[in-house]
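User: Hi! Is it possible to get a structure for several chains at once, not just one? Here's what I have:
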Amino acid sequence: MTSTIHRLLYTLSLMMLTLSAPAQKQQDFAGRYMQLYAEGSSLTCQTVSPTMMQKMLQLTPAHTDDATHEALKRLKSIRLVTQSHPDDAKQAYDNALTLAHNNPARYRLQKEQDNKKIFARTKGKHIIEVVLISLNDHRFNLVDLTGIMPKDFVDSLIK
Amino acid sequence: MDYKYIEQLLERYWEGETSTEEEGILKAFYRQQNLPPHLARYQSLFAYADREKEQTLDSSFDARLLQAAGIDNEPGSKATKHVTPGKFTIAHRLRPLYRAAAAVAIVTLLGTAAQHSFRSADDKNPAASWDYNQQAYTDSYDDPQKAYEMASKALLLFKEGPSTAAADTLRAAADKDSHTETAHE
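Assistant: Yes, the chains can be modeled jointly so their relative placement is included. Here is the combined structure:
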């Protein structure tokens, strides 16, 4: 009797874990990157939160331009990670690429040009995260956009 | 009569060295009625062994045992039913494996169904697919106009190389801004 109850509880908890797994809150790429590599480095991260994105969209048109405004309407957050020491830029760039390549099921390479790579995370019919990783002239930049974006959003960003 | 042989057998008997045949001789000897006094004292021991050997279970033993165990022994009851031993086949041996496989299949099926339903919900309601933790975002700017400028320049990085003026401006702003997130956060 006791073992039956134990089996039942075990099965139920397994089912609950299975069901709750997709509902977990996720961490974006830049957040994870800073968590892994920022300590003791000169990496800096600028953030625009979903709340601030809403405020930005309420700015008067005089202070905005249409193309940017249209793009921002699709976004929920923006993060920009930079490296202030040029000597460390290559290492920061390699770390970012490693992190992306270590999560191939999550981040898929969308565009690639020299030392500029764009990864995207999709969910259903939408892109929900776009990550730009670039290294040029000893300058490292990581731009992380989250939001509800159409599949051709990356193309529109590049144009 | 010389009882020396019996005395030797007895000595060996006490030492535990007698064979079954020799013990049989001793038992046969002690079945006699007239024994010398110095040997007669062991008669009760061998007589007891003989007596116990004749003990058998009587016909009521089974009934008494079942009664003590609380099992009904009435005709037609479970206790009197004829039970044939079942064959323990490979299928029986693998039954726990089937059960485990079935449990895994059920959990996987439910998980897949749940994921499918979540995905369908995402397609119907795109806003639900944004699964990030909103609390994890701490603004670097209090002024929406400044945040807008940073955002528009960040978007420019997709179009242009990072060595452009836009990138340099962003980097300079990042270095100076006191609200910037750092590793110490």
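Confidence is low (pLDDT under 50) at residues 178-185 of chain B. Chain B touches chain A through 51 residues (CB under 8 Å).

User: Great, thank you!
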